[in-house]
């Protein structure tokens, strides 16, 4: 909803901008017959997280650099699984 005020007499109106067919519309004040031109409000931009300065000047999105030593490390060896209780009691 948009709140508008007549430029001539100060009468206040509430207008549903979703009912407007075009980007602008002419509205006639019922109090003083003044004709006003109103415009749809600009859509609010979606929130976007700021990009750190080190990436902003290169036009890149935020990325994390992983050191090669971390990437090339083998996965830690897992200890052998303990025998289940059933296997331990079998002769």
Topology:
Layout: E1 2-5, E2 12-15, E3 24-28, E4 35-39, H1 53-56, H2 68-71, H3 85-89
Antiparallel strand pairs: 1-2, 3-4
Features:
4 strands; two-stranded antiparallel ribbon; 3 helices; alpha+beta; 91 residues; two-stranded antiparallel sheet
Can you tell me about this structure?
By secondary structure, this protein is of the alpha+beta class. It has a domain at 2-39. The chain is 14% helix and 20% strand. It has three helices and four strands, in the order E-E-E-E-H-H-H. Strands 1-2 form a two-stranded antiparallel sheet. Strands 3-4 form a two-stranded antiparallel ribbon. A hairpin with a 6-residue loop joins strand 1 (2-5) and strand 2. The model has no long low-confidence stretch (mean pLDDT 75).
Largest sheet: 2 strands, antiparallel
Strand order of the largest sheet: 1-2
How far do the termini sit from each other?
81 Å
Uncertain segments are none
Count of distinct strands: 4
Given helix and strand content, the structural type is alpha+beta
Which of globular, elongated, flat, extended, rod-shaped describes the shape? elongated
Number of helices, where a helix is a run of at least 4 consecutive DSSP H or I residues = 3
SSE pattern: EEEEHHH
Helical proportion? Answer: 10-25%
Cα-atom Rg, whole angstroms?
34 Å
């Amino acid at each position: 909803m948009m709140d508008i005020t007549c430029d001539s007499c100060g009468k206040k109106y509430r207008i549903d901008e979703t009912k407007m067919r075009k980007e602008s519309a002419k509205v006639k004040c019922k109090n003083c017959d003044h004709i006003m031109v109103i415009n749809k409000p600009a859509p609010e931009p979606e929130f976007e997280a700021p990009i750190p300065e080190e990436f902003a000047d290169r036009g890149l999105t935020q990325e994390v650099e992983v050191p090669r030593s971390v990437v090339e490390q083998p996965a830690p060896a897992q200890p052998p699984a303990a025998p289940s209780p059933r296997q331990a009691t079998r002769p």
